[in-house]
Design brief:
Elements (H helix, E strand, L loop, with lengths): L4 H13 L1 E3 H8 L3 H13 L3 E4 L2 E4 L9 H6 L2 H14 L5 E4 L3 H9 L6 E5 L2 H7 L5 E5 L3 E3 L4 E3 L1 H7 L4 E6 L3 E2 L4 E4 L2 H12 L1 E7 L11 E5 L5 E4 L7 H8 L2 E4 L3
Parallel strand pairs: 4-5, 4-9, 5-6, 9-12, 12-14, 14-15
Antiparallel strand pairs: 1-3, 2-3, 7-8, 10-11, 11-13
Length: about 260
Amino acid sequence: MTLNPRQTALLEEVRSQGFASIEELARKFGVTLQTVRRDVNLLAENGMLARFHGGVRMDGSTTENIAYRQRQLLNAEGKARIARAVAAAVPEGCSLILNIGTTVEEIARALVHHRGLRVITNNLHVANILADNQDCEVIVAGGVLRSRDRGIVGEATVEFIGQFKVDIGLIGISGIEADGTLRDFDFREVKVARTIIEHSREVWLAADATKFNRQAMVELAHLSQIDRLFTDEPLRAPFEQIVADSGVKCVVAGE
């Protein structure tokens, strides 16, 4: 297809940042939201960009996640709302496992005033955040340290987490496909997350709107294996039906 100069510039802007909101692009190029949406829809239809609620990103690879710093910024407001909703649902004096991910790290920040928590984690960012809570015992899993995001993975991590049975296993995810399959990029990370599911009395999934209809290479689980789903936007088809059929309690943060 042939792009006009604005569409070419818009594509380059998203490529340089990895993602952008519709509002940011409208301000950047001095056009209306409707004009940006038309441009974005055209680019998405031709496989150049991928849409998510309120924004756009480069059409993602199924084999490699976007950079950690970009993930920290992507839909930060939505992740913060999810974190507050999760924290409101976590009772004091319970045990949790928190895994890898920027949404999970935001949840850790929302838990810094909870009392009597015992938290097991394979995420050094989570451990560092919760270290500020003097009424929280933090247990850090051993294993291979992944430098790009301070996640700990590997067989030693799986074996360590397998020793416990906690009240709540709280996991993040890279993508949820249209059939309800939960997917991630790193097989070692997936094995740890599967172990968390197996060793938790309840499994909570925190997934913002950008994760739905996003592809990744490794199958982790299915939505039907989750007890509670925390997200930041109302579910759309087909996810609303999958969640209802599976008996998953869905919490839309901010509603």
